[in-house]
Amino acid sequence: MTNSKLTDAPKLTAPKLTARNVDVFYGPKKAINNVSIEIDNGLVTAFIGPSGCGKSTFLRSLNRMNDTIADARVTGEILLDGEDIYAASMDPVALRARVGMVFQKPNPFPKSIYENIAYGPRIHGLAPSKADMDGIIESSLTKAGLWDEVKDRLNEPGTALSGGQQQRLCIARAIAVSPEVILMDEPCSALDPIATARIEELIDELKDTYAIVIVTHSMQQAARVSQRTAFFHLGNLVEYGDTSQIFTTPREEKTKDYITGRYG
Ligand SMILES: Nc1ncnc2c1ncn2[C@@H]1O[C@H](COP(=O)(O)OP(=O)(O)OP(=O)(O)O)[C@@H](O)[C@H]1O
Ligand SMILES: [Mg+2]
């Protein structure tokens, strides 16, 4: 495949995530076909492509969320900092703290704002004292751009927040366990334009600290928030490159057809 290499420029840092020849099956059906890609730190990578092309399936393979789907099977190799995430020695729960996930529909637990964030650090033993936990709650909410709006109502239910606030709460929950990568599957699709803009700003701020991968249906959003774009079609990674290149001078005819709206 020609499309797994980004540019001819020498690489200064090792990739955060490396997928090599990854296939994903649901029962006998192959949903992802021989995908190889490198995902770097310090930037936002967007996955785009028509509905059903496998974006969510591939995203879930990056933190073993496919393990939770009964007949899903992943083959090939996925490395996090060079370490095989499907190795027997890898604890999937610990992995999902390192590679966090934010879903399409905000899904706060039916608990208080405070407890939504405290849950992860507690099960991972990150906060020995109440003061430690309070510190994690404040810093996570601050990084997610929500602290000022909720600091006086931490004991209210997370579900009482607006949709956009709930999504920022879910981002704070992912941040609370000090992840290295945050995977986002259409995180704005249930949000209005103002809440969407707020999340996009947040993604831009977070990318300096976490490698971010975002699945989006919106090519405008991919162009706004990402520095790299991967275009998927029928389970294949058709083209991967700098976002500006993908949107201005795609190499593949299929990419060009998609970004010019010929199908989707
Ligand atoms: N749990 C599942 N069991 C069986 N097949 C599945 C499952 N989830 C997804 N698929 C199939 O795998 C393929 C890829 O689906 P996936 O949800 O990854 O696509 P997508 O690109 O995220 O689409 P969308 O943009 O609509 O969210 C589709 O053919 C879909 O029907
Ligand atoms: Mg999807």
UniProtKB/TrEMBL annotation:
Segments traversing the membrane: none
Any GO molecular function: ATP hydrolysis activity
Ranges for domain ABC transporter: 17-259
Xref: CDD domains: ABC_PstB_phosphate_transporter
Record's keyword annotation contains Ion transport: no
A Pfam family it matches: ABC_tran
InterPro entries xrefs: AAA+_ATPase, ABC_transporter-like_ATP-bd, ABC_transporter-like_CS, P-loop_NTPase, PstB-like
GO biological process: phosphate ion transmembrane transport
Keywords: ATP-binding, Nucleotide-binding, Phosphate transport, Transport
The UniProt record lists the keyword ATP-binding: yes
GO cellular component: membrane
PANTHER family linked to this entry: ABC TRANSPORTER I FAMILY MEMBER 17 (PTHR43423)
Annotated protein name in UniProt: Phosphate ABC transporter ATP-binding protein
